[in-house]
Amino acid sequence: MKPPKFDYHAPASIDEAVALLVRYGGDAKVLAGGQSLMPMLNFRLARPAALVDVNRIAALAYIREDNGTVAFGAVTRQRAIEFSPVVAARLPLLREATRWVGHLPIRSRGTIGGSIAHADPSAEYPAVLTALGGEVVVQGPRGRRTVKAADLFETYLTTTLAAEDLVVEVRLPAMPAGAGYAFEEFARRHGDFAIVGIAAMVVCAGDRCTTARLASAGAGPVPVRLRAAEEILERDGLGAAAIEAAAARAAELVQPDSDVHASADYRRHLTRVLTGRALRRALTVARG
Ligand SMILES: Cc1cc2nc3c(=O)[nH]c(=O)nc-3n(C[C@H](O)[C@H](O)[C@H](O)COP(=O)(O)OP(=O)(O)OC[C@H]3O[C@@H](n4cnc5c(N)ncnc54)[C@H](O)[C@@H]3O)c2cc1C
Question: Beta strands of the chain (E only): which ranges?
């Protein structure tokens, strides 16, 4: 299939891109890596009047660490994240999650901003953003604002952002030194979207767990921060019984739907199994 006709614009600045989105009154789409948008156009699932290609805006591609936060320009490629020394040192959970995103050619084009704006519930980046309590910086017709992960994802493939909003930056708090982490996922084939994925981070002090972060992908219309499961670990530590209790609680916290890939019950079962697996591996990492 070929895409329907559209106007094409390649602005050189963020202001110009937003002005174009405003000019089309909600009927233009941002083109980033095109790894999700182009298939949607080809299948005629989207018929925008125009594409606003942001790939030539140099100010949208960077990775910077500042004051305990790692900031990514929205058009930073997933491949750049996979090999960034800053990400390896400060956000190893994100690096591990990146290796689950499709295949190498997809990561060479796909962007962090596109993955988050696309809001596929099975995608890895939205789950990491949710687990670590990150945020996005958005520029719209009325200027810039920051939207926290918890306020961003509305339902399947839908965020709370307006059609005229451009994601310009994704911010994640750097992980504490010595934190354990794991991204566990089950997919039918390597490179497929997750049926369920779990992002986990733990910080240990002796037998205690001072901080736990858990979020799911693929177990409902949006990524879910599994706070009640985290609380079990922060109260009871990271022994086998506490991990099993947290995994069981995680499965109660998600509200998956059934689809052609898996039933809701199976996704709930996977949430329990993968949460336990992610926590055990995160604990091993934390203990060096
Ligand atoms: C075979 C295959 C396998 C894949 N497997 C996975 C996988 O396992 N996990 C995974 O997470 N992804 C997977 N993907 C998707 C891939 O990671 C995409 O890169 C990602 O979903 C979208 O990023 P993009 O930069 O390509 O965005 P695009 O495809 O260019 O855009 C996607 C959507 O986001 C909007 N958008 C993009 N950038 C912005 C912005 N800065 N501000 C506002 N809106 C914006 C677009 O308008 C569009 O609606 C796969 C893709 C393919 C083709």
Answer: 7-9, 28-31, 50-53, 63-66, 69-73, 135-140, 143-148, 153-155, 158-159, 166-173, 180-186, 196-205, 208-217, 224-225
Q: Helix crossing, 240-253 with 264-286: angle to 10°? A: 140
For residue 195, the number of C-alpha atoms closer than 13 Å in the C-beta half-sphere is 21
Distances (CA, A) of 199 to 29, 98, 175, 202: 30, 12, 13, 11
- The chain-wide mean pLDDT, for the chain, equals 97
Q: How far apart are the first and last CA of the chain?
A: 51
Backbone angles phi, psi at 224, to 5 degrees: -120, 125
Q: Over the stretch 98-141, which tens digit does the pLDDT of each residue have?
A: 999 999 999 999 999 999 999 999 999 999 999 999 999 999 99
What pLDDT digit, counting tens, does each position of 32-75 carry? 999 999 999 999 999 999 999 999 999 999 999 999 999 999 99
Which residue owns the Cα nearest ligand 1 atom 43? 166
pLDDT score for 172: 98
152: pLDDT strictly greater than 80: yes
Q: What pLDDT does residue 2 have?
A: 87
Pocket test residue of 18, 35, 222 for ligand 1, highest count of atoms within 8 A of CB: 35
The residues, ordered by sequence, that sit 6+ positions from 39 with a Cβ below 8 Å of its Cβ are: none
CA of 242 to the centre of ligand 1 (A): 36
Name beta bridge partners: 167: 138
Judge if the beta carbon of residue 183 lies within 6 A of ligand 1: no
Give yes or no for a contact between 4 and 26, defined as CB atoms under 8 angstroms apart.
Answer: no
The pTM score is 0.97
Q: Which atom, in ligand 1's list, is nearest to the CA of 161?
A: 43
252 in Cβ contact with 232 (< 8 Å): no
